[in-house]
Protein 1
Amino acid sequence: MTRLFGALALLLALLASPAAADPADIDAAARGVVRVLLIGEEGGQPVPVSHGTGFAVSPTRIVTNAHVVSEASQDDTLRIGIVPSEGKSGAFARVIAISPRNDLALLEIAKGSLRLPPLALASGAGGTGSEVSAVGYPMNVDLAQGLDIEDIFQPQPTVKSRGFLSGERPSRQFDTILHTAPIARGNSGGPLLDPCGRVIGVNSFSADAESGDGEFYFAVSLRELLPFLKANGVEPVVNALPCRSIAELNAAERQRLEAEQAAARERLAIRARADGEAREQARLAAQMEVIERRENAMALALLALLAAIGSGYAALAWQRHPDTRKRAAVAAGCAVLALIGALSLWFTRPGLAAIEEKLAAALGRHDSLGNAVPGSDTAVEGPLICTLVPERSRVTTARTDDVAFDWAADGCVNTRTQYGLSAGGEWSRVLVLEDEAAVAVNHYDPATRTFRTDRYLLGQEAMGKVLEARGQYSPPACGVSDAGRRLDEQQSAIIALLPEAPNERLVYDCRAKSGITRATGNEPIAGIRPQE
């Protein structure tokens, strides 16, 4: 019980302690942050008129400030350009909706020209004093770097700054978040992120809007952004789970395993004592039953012997007189039969070894406490429903739907997708999700029925290397000889390219469910897409 309270205390402490921003999470979010350009024309050549920042809420839709694009909505000679942080070129976009009241605008990228990894939105801003990060394209950095017109049109890395949440308050008739993460001209429309890289606001203006040198800065809050998106047909990814680091999860996992092992040892000790007592009771009952049967057999044998003696004596007596010789023959036969019965009863009486046999028969495939012997009905094959375990997971952008998972002992999933088997006995499958610029490494432990997905959100360069490695092999099909080992060797080339720690970890508890038919191969795995 003490260990249980200790584990709960650690979990509560992790949930309550303010999280520090993980650079990997901020970098992952920055993949979907873009420069928003207003482009005019001069001498037949495109020229930048002004610029701000935006971020993707879907692969083709971008949020920015209304004041960044309002001029383009009133002047048909201006075009809106979108320049991502990575890649070789940008794209044009059009205004879908604009709301000057709360300084929000929604843009749509021209069809087929560019797709971006969308950012997840947090469920709230967090508490005062929480660390926050601003990501965008401040103009003063461009000027300090000496960027010219040509550079503005080319993908450039985003600029990130950190600060703290100072509170939420209404300003200019809409809800804003007050923070200290420095922003400047050009940051307008960029995301304000929590430590896990989730959007908590849209940076808009500073306390000194004219010079941009104010110590405090304002972002449009989620209370304005969420209704705006939903009113315009956008269902963003919203993540309400606590922000925990992978290191914290690993520490909590180690403590959980230690607590489980200690509890298991304690249960085994208690069970061993109870098992010993119950076994002794079962042994005593078996012994009493066997002894009773033994004594009964011996008593019957003695009676049969006495009957044989009596019959033999009568046969001898009747044999002396001619008139009773027929009776003597019958008596002699009875004596022989009684003697045979006596000997049979004596030699077939239960021995002391029958006590152990009786005990084993009584226990059967159950232990002395009546519990099933391990392995008697612990089959792990067949259709499973896997449900997310939030306290063991770290989620920033991934979906957390239940997972339909049809497992076979040879590592075949959903009757069509082979998993690899490592030398350590772990089953895994690497999925390269090009559309999401991510790699998902799925793991399954049949012994505990635990399904885990580690997701790595990669930049364009890293993703290119992964795609090249993935193109070098074709995974073996289910049923192929030694498929698990072969796939594990093939996947190792991709795993070697991944960062040391994933951005997200989704842990699922899997349970068999009656009435589920075997999978067809079209079910989503870990809320991402069907298996390859």
Protein 2
Amino acid sequence: MLIMANPYISFVLQLAPRILTQIDRDTDSPTFGCCDRNFWHYKVRDFSSAILQQSGLGLALLYKNDFPGNIYYAKNEIKETAAAALNYWRKIQHNDGSFDEYWPNEHSIPAAVFSLFSAVEICKLLEIDNAKTNNAILKAAKFLIRNPEKQALNQEIASMCAVYNAALFLSSELLKQEAEKKFSKLLALQDEEGWFAEYNGADIGYLTVSLNFMAEYYRLSRDERAKDCIIRIFDFIKYFIHPDGSLGGDYASRNTEYFLPAGFEIAANLCNFPEAGMIAERLMVYAASNYSVDDRYLAHYVFHSFVRALAENNQRKEIKDKKYRKNASVLLPYQKEFFKYFKNAGIAIVSNKKHYIICALSKGGVTSVFDKKTKRKILNDCGYRAFIGSKVYVTNWINNGYKAEISSPENYTNNILKVESYFYRAKFHTPTTVQHFLLRIASFFVGRKIIPLMKKIFILPSKKSRIRLTREINISNNGINIKDEINSQTKIDTLRASEGLSLRYCPSSRFFQNSTLIRNNYPYEEHDIKDAKIEKRIG
């Protein structure tokens, strides 16, 4: 008997034509192999985003892995298109080894990180070994060595993995040493709770990216320290797999709700951790009808992670496998009753008979509640937005200035979570022609030196206001009662319940999820007030 006859097959086969559609497949075209359809086909952009060249790896994996229904297996056209994606990647590289992602002359770290890993994997899968491509790989690796990422650690983990992969492919002891230096620094940065920081907090979707590339690193290196790191990630991430099969959300630092599966499957096979494969397959049950990302992220690392997961899953087909059978019945946290507080992440979890509750105290008490009987999300409380004149302030902004109290540590039947926080200034950013013109001028003269300014504008913490929020969440087996008190020194023109959709910029957020439809199940709006008391009850 097979394990679900491989849960990834239909998913991958549905995505493959969408990926191929993004690629210029005309062998006579000067942009043959370009994976940015906005550039080569629609012509609405004057440069190609290099991060999309990862599509070539997904095709190379399809070409090399035979499975039921894979019409792309061993097809020369697929091999040529994957190789063309690699060649075009080389053509758009800057002299310093970097690439562009969002604007010309950006010299983006993510574009170099993720495309380098894919480029090396394509070379290995298709047995490509030529001087020009090898030189491009070396230049990209050296760029990443010179430019570590310090705030989005998923990128630095992928960077470490990409440089190590390049070192093995080029037989470079120097690159290998630099990759191992990155690895040692990353081990010191892993929080004791198991997560890696994403702009000052724990984010679940991006943690699966970290897992993906830490597992790839283990696949390449067999370094036991990487295995231990992976297990610590699992010990954290398993608490954020919800009863409906979804993962992540507004309670995390970057609001992501998607996952990469390859890390789970590699860990199941190579780390002797079959529970990881079981978790991946549970996530796939939800993903089969609810996995939602845009075409840019499909062309990014999503597609090739799913194809890699498919190949890894095929290696453990027999349900008779003793290790899998033993762990197939292991209960995930949401199936148990407990209280858990990740103090460093600022996230409390209560699981009782009726509900699975995740509360981000570090984000003003953002709370997700799932009904265990129906396995559905019944509350997605993202706090409030306050409008004063043309300015908007929000409570769902991760910060270190909150004060939290927990009445009964470890009590999951009767507990009170209390948080005192503040509204933070946020902005709606609408691009203009002038802004884009100035950005391009600045990037032309100073290159990637402009990136810290862009992060400060779009991502990094905003200014704290003098509007205070005190939230009290009373949890029992009978239900949940939330009491909010808002006090402002300035009159608030409009105060309303937030629908989520955080104003903190994150490219891989705001993908539609079915649970989005319940965002407004507790609407609230008041005008011309300084103080407010709001109460809601979830039975």
